[in-house]
Design a protein that fits this description.
By secondary structure, the protein is an alpha+beta fold. The chain is globular and about 50 Å long. The protein is built from 4 helices and 8 strands, in the order ααββββαββββα.
Length: about 140
């Protein structure tokens, strides 16, 4: 996958990504995913703060998009496990994330993701996950 349009189509196959409104921006050889703010994403109206589940799902989808971007897979990879560190409250504004594949084998990939809002050096959450990659013959089954 080399085009932002292809990555957008990849994310459109994930119903929850469509519901959250996750978008993707490609600049050179890097992609950044965007979680556009909407009131439905607020989990704590007192602060107000973004819902942790929405942030966690956003991080997971960012990892999947990075895997699609770097490997060219068509089918979303299956999460084996994912650990999320919530570092700061998510403010009611757009959130951005970038992922890096730290290790990739034939069937399993390890991905690290960080999300931020105003300042990339002050992430609001980070994730570390392992994903099962479908082999070309398995994707058809």
């Amino acid at each position: 996958m080399s085009e932002t349009k292809d990555l957008s189509l990849f994310l459109d196959r994930i119903p929850y990504a469509r519901f959250l409104g996750v978008g993707v921006d490609r600049r050179g050889n890097e992609i950044t995913t965007v979680l556009r703010y909407k009131e439905d994403l607020i989990g704590n109206p007192v602060l107000p703060a973004l819902h942790g589940g929405a942030i966690g799902a956003f991080l997971e989808m960012t990892a999947m998009a990075q895997l699609a971007f770097e490997t060219g897979i068509d089918a979303p990879p299956k999460p084996i496990n994912i650990t999320i560190d919530y570092l700061r409250s998510g403010k009611p504004q757009d959130t951005f994330a970038r992922a890096a594949i730290t290790k990739q084998g034939r069937r399993v990939a390890t991905v690290h993701v960080e999300a931020w809002q105003e300042d990339k050096s002050r992430p609001i959450a980070a994730a570390h996950g392992h994903f099962l990659l479908k082999q070309p013959d398995e994707a058809e089954a």
